[in-house]
């Protein structure tokens, strides 16, 4: 064979070997890089996962591969390995049987075991345990990212369920459980469904993207001033706990603001200034704010604790309330709203769930989280729909600028609910918003014959589509409500 042919053959073989190596590199390098990347993510995820025992338990109960690896490791190390390694050690270092004669007549057989035999057996067992545990740990760690996905899916389901809950305590509990299944970086979304109609979808979505402090924190504030007792509710801005002021020796409510709001510098500044402004509001029918606490990167608003439940609780069964009681509640809340309006505050979320009662039955307006407050350098978002769809004014539903007359409309819808046991507009989210904007409400006395005509007319004025057709201030509204009852009593 000529030198040229040999050279060409070697060149061809070299090219083939290079092509094979290139093929292997292209085939396995992406997989290796992917596994290395997953390992890095898992190492970052592990501390957060260990801090979430509920998520860790959920994952362990669902991680079939990890369970199988753990079972196989235990079986191999306890059932298979000891006899196998004993046989290997005995084969490499077989015992020696020595025969000795005692007293010339008695024969004695002595088994001599090489000391290296036990060392070999111990070493093999130790190495096998270390390898087995290391491989199992790598399998566990490699599948840690799946725990994040699993927790996200379960949290989404819990939040959809909580959005459909009428019981605020149960809804808050589901929110807390959902939060316990999320770790840093988990930002699942919630589909727009009927949950949005109840006004809970925004809170559910907020909870999903929030990372607040663990719920097992016992105290907050300087020198552990405020004790946390239990979760009593949730809203669009945070979770509300019942607690106790250890300095002034009184029960309080503490709202923990959601983490994604606290971590926004502009929102943090807004919270501080709003809390300062709201702390100056002192009225018999507005829930008082006592303190704003910043603790371990979290914000807590300390408020008056009311133990008489909410108006939403009373309306949950779908039954109408007594006419006189309904008007009395509406007048007192209108009085509180009027005080806030004079301070250039617009609540923007007046609804039965935000009307709370003291132990003696006095109604108070709560949750100014969506309020439009005239405070320097505090900017509200324009074009963003805030509030609860069922009680939302037409201008809110259309994303327009609102003023105090929007609160009068929402209070009118709430009064309509008290008098009839139902809201005037129902359906899915889009239908409700469209009806608030364009459809006239049925007269409340057509649904409840006990409602006087004068009161029904007053309610319809409150929920007029155009702001200029409503009562222009709460003083006129209160006078009209009281006159309608007085006329009915005289008649």
Low-confidence stretches: 184-216, 375-385
The overall strand count is 12
In N-to-C order, the SSE pattern is: HHHEEHHHHEEEEHHEEHHEEEEHHHHH
Largest sheet: 6 strands, antiparallel
Our estimate of the beta-strand percent is 5-15%
Helical coverage, percent range? 40-55%
Shape, per Cα inertia axes: elongated
Biggest sheet, strands in spatial order? 3-4-5-6-8-7
Mean pLDDT over the full residue set: 76
- What gap, in angstroms, lies between the N and C termini? 127 Å
Structural class: alpha+beta
Rg of Cα set: 35 Å
Query: How many separate helices?
Result: 16
Structure description:
- By secondary structure, the protein is an alpha+beta fold.
- The chain has 16 helices and twelve strands.
- The strands form four sheets. A six-stranded antiparallel sheet has the order 3-4-5-6-8-7.
- Helix 5 packs antiparallel against helix 6 (168-180).
- It is elongated.
- It starts with a helix and ends with a helix.
- The model is unreliable at 184-216 and 375-385 (pLDDT under 50).
């Amino acid at each position: 064979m000529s030198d040229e042919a040999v050279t060409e053959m070697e060149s061809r073989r070299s090219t083939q070997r290079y092509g094979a190596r290139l093929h292997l590199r292209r085939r396995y390098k992406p997989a290796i890089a992917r596994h290395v990347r997953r390992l890095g993510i898992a190492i970052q995820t592990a501390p957060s996962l260990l801090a979430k025992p509920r998520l860790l338990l959920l994952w362990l109960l669902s991680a079939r591969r990890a369970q199988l690896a753990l079972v196989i490791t235990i079986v191999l190390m306890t059932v298979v390995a000891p006899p196998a390694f004993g046989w290997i050690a005995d084969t490499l270092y077989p015992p020696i049987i020595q025969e000795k004669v005692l007293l010339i007549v008695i024969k004695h057989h002595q088994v001599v075991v090489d000391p290296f035999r036990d060392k070999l057996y111990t070493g093999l067992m130790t190495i096998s345990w270390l390898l087995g545990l290391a491989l199992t740990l790598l399998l566990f760690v490699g599948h840690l990212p799946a725990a994040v996905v699993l927790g996200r899916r379960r949290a989404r389901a819990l939040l959809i369920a909580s959005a459909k809950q009428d019981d605020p305590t149960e809804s808050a509990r589901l929110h807390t459980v959902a939060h316990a299944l999320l770790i840093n970086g988990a930002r699942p979304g919630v589909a727009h469904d009927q949950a949005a109609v109840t006004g809970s979808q925004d809170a559910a979505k907020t909870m999903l993207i929030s990372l607040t402090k663990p719920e097992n924190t016992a105290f907050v504030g300087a020198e552990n001033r405020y004790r946390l007792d239990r979760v009593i509710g949730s809203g669009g801005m945070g979770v509300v706990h019942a607690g106790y002021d250890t300095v002034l020796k009184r029960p309080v409510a503490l709202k923990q603001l959601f983490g994604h709001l606290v971590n926004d510098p502009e929102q943090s500044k807004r919270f501080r200034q709003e809390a300062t402004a709201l702390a100056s509001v002192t009225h018999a029918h507005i829930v008082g704010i006592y303190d704003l606490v910043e603790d371990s990167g979290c914000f807590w608003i300390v408020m008056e604790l009311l133990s008489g439940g909410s108006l939403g609780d009373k309306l949950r069964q779908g039954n109408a309330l007594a006419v006189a009681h309904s008007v009395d509640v509406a007048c007192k809340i209108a009085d509180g709203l009027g005080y806030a309006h004079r301070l250039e505050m617009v609540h923007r979320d007046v609804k039965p769930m935000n009307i709370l009662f003291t132990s003696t039955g006095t109604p108070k307006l709560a949750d100014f989280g969506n309020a439009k407050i005239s405070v320097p350098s505090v900017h509200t978002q324009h074009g963003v729909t805030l509030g609860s769809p069922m009680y939302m004014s037409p201008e809110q539903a259309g994303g327009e600028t609102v003023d105090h007359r929007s609160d009068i409309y929402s209070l009118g819808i709430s009064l309509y609910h008290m008098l009839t046991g139902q809201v005037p507009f129902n359906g899915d989210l889009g239908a409700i918003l469209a009806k608030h904007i364009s459809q006239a409400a049925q007269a409340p006395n057509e649904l409840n014959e006990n409602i006087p005509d004068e009161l029904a007319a007053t309610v319809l004025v409150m929920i007029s589509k155009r702001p200029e057709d409503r009562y222009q201030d709460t003083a006129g509204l209160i006078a009209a409500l009281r006159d309608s009852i007085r006329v009915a009593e005289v008649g």
